[in-house]
Design goal:
By secondary structure, this protein is mainly α. The protein contains seven helices and no strands. The protein has helices spanning 6-45, 63-76, 90-101, 104-125, 134-145, 153-170, 173-179. Helix 2 packs across helix 6 (153-170) and helix 4 crosses helix 5 (134-145). The radius of gyration is 32 Å and the shape is flat. The relative contact order is 0.10.
């Protein structure tokens, strides 16, 4: 039987304690990283999910109202062989234009009109605009189109929404690169051309 001298046993014991200290330090660092990552992620998990997709400075819309705007825009310019208004984010263009270019009173009337439109759609279609079929949505839009001279909240909202949706769609990247290709300088410039003697 082979017996290790006491000095060797002491050295092995010290090496084991050092390895234990390294493992403890590594474990502590790992745990610190996990905890600090958790602290960073908690605020995003606690975030209010009822807010819209981006921050508006001058008025606020809930996520449900933003979804309704997207569906109204899609009903105005539906997806066919070409992308619809929702695909080019025309509803976000509307939100941003109302935030940046409208007065406080116009913004309040827009939000009030959105709610009035939702009520009008429910009365007309018998269900909410979000749950309505495409045929029912077309019926709602046709009914509100007949109210052109009407000054009700939903009619004023719809006129503004339609105008901004069309503007947003026609200024989208898709429209300007695939449908109506935008040339900065239309045609070619010929600086030197012969002038006929008949002129």
């Amino acid at each position: 039987m082979f017996v290790l001298p006491y000095v060797w046993i002491a050295k092995i014991h010290i090496l084991c304690l050092n390895d234990f200290a390294l493992l403890t330090r590594r474990t502590a660092i790992k745990q610190l990283l996990v905890v600090s990552t958790g602290v960073l992620l908690v605020p995003s998990c606690m975030e209010d999910r009822t807010k819209g997709s981006f921050l508006l400075k001058n008025y606020s819309l809930s996520a449900a109202q933003e979804n309704l705007l997207a569906e109204i825009a899609e009903a105005i310019i539906p997806k066919t062989a070409t992308p619809g208004a929702k695909d080019v984010y025309a509803h976000q263009f509307v939100m941003k234009m109302m935030d940046d270019c409208a007065t406080k009173e116009e913004q309040q009337n827009f939000v009030k009109g959105l709610d009035a439109f939702a009520d009008f759609a429910e009365k007309t279609a018998g269900t909410s605009f979000m749950k309505a079929t495409p045929v029912q949505r077309s019926g709602v839009l046709e009914a509100i189109e007949k109210k052109k001279s009407d000054e009700s909240d939903e009619a004023k909202f719809y006129r503004r929404m339609k105008s901004l949706t069309v503007r947003g769609y026609t200024s989208s990247q898709y429209f300007l690169t695939q449908v109506q290709v935008y040339n900065i300088i239309p045609g070619s410039f010929k600086g030197c051309v012969p002038v006929s003697s008949n002129a």
